[in-house]
Amino acid sequence: MTKIIGLTGGIASGKSTVSNLLRLSGYPIVDADQITRRLQAAHSKGLEQLVTVFGEQILNPDQTLNRYTLGSIVFNDQEKLNKLNIVMQPLIYDEIWRQVKHYRKQQLPYVILDVPLLFEANYANDCDLIIVVTVDRQTQLQRLMHRNGYSKFDAEQRINSQMSLAKKEKRADIVINNSGNRDELERQVANLIDQMRHHKL
Question: Which helix (H) or strand (E) is 24 found in, with range?
Answer without folding.
Answer: helix 15-24
